[in-house]
Specification:
globular; about 230 residues; 12 helices; Arc Repressor Mutant, subunit A; mainly alpha; Rna Polymerase Sigma Factor, Chain: A
């Protein structure tokens, strides 16, 4: 690897430039791209799989798919949207492989409506008492994560992408392959359910939900880098 190439990569390097370099099998560019988008992809995978080790594995496999297909990326969507779409597909595939049900998450329909009330009632019945206003943000975050996990599957994915990762309605619809109107409806319902359970704590903690610790970030990158072919030159 040319040392000047490594030095040229910084936090300001555009995604498009990183993609170009990754397509040329520049491993350091791929490392930078993963580091930049790791948290978003992990949160998306975990919102579907509800299992941290499985989510990490899904992200790693998604990165390998992206690495092999990087030369085919044409910039029709943002790089982040393209990567999230890959990890969402990988996560859903994992769910289908590990269960006997044909549809674990019904992203393409609104079949959850019949279970809507029972799901909301269950959340309300199991809602813990609100922590006092003086409680530390860490406790509020723990409660928020638990409530996000308790959301019905399709609502949880929409909430994570819209509220936590701040994707637009259009981007979320593209990633999950559902109509924009469905994104708006599910996000509104999910937010209402969470607000009823957590009240004001949701606004304080949602930006820190499922924080992406440095160790996890480094572990994912190291595992993916170990799976790459030797860098040319």
């Amino acid at each position: 690897m040319n040392p000047s190439t490594i030095q040229a990569i910084s936090d300001e390097t555009p995604d498009s430039e990183l993609v170009r370099r990754v397509a040329a099998r520049d491993h350091e560019a791929f490392r930078a791209l993963m580091k930049r988008h790791n948290q978003m992809l992990y949160r998306a995978a975990r919102s579907i799989l509800k299992n941290e080790p499985e989510a990490e594995d899904a992200v790693q496999d998604a990165y390998m798919q992206a690495y092999k297909a990087m030369g085919e990326f044409r910039g029709d969507a943002k790089v982040s949207t393209w990567l999230v779409r890959i990890v969402v597909n990988e996560s859903i595939a994992r769910l289908r492989r590990h269960t006997r049900r044909a549809e674990v998450i019904r992203l393409e329909g609104d079949g959850l409506d019949q279970d809507q009330h029972s799901s909301e009632d269950g959340m309300n019945e199991s809602a813990p008492e609100h922590p006092e206003r003086a409680a530390q943000r860490a406790e509020a975050r723990r409660l928020l994560e638990a409530k996000i996990d308790a959301l019905p599957d399709a609502f949880r994915s929409v909430f994570m992408l819209r509220a936590v990762e701040e994707l637009t309605v259009e981007e979320t619809a593209s990633v999950l392959d559902i109509p924009e109107a469905t994104v708006r409806t599910r996000f509104f319902r999910a937010r209402g359910m969470l607000r009823e359970s957590l009240s004001r704590e949701i606004d304080l903690a949602q930006g820190e939900a499922f924080s992406f610790a440095g160790a996890r970030c480094d572990r994912i990158i190291a595992n993916v880098m170990a799976r790459l072919d030797p860098a040319p030159g």
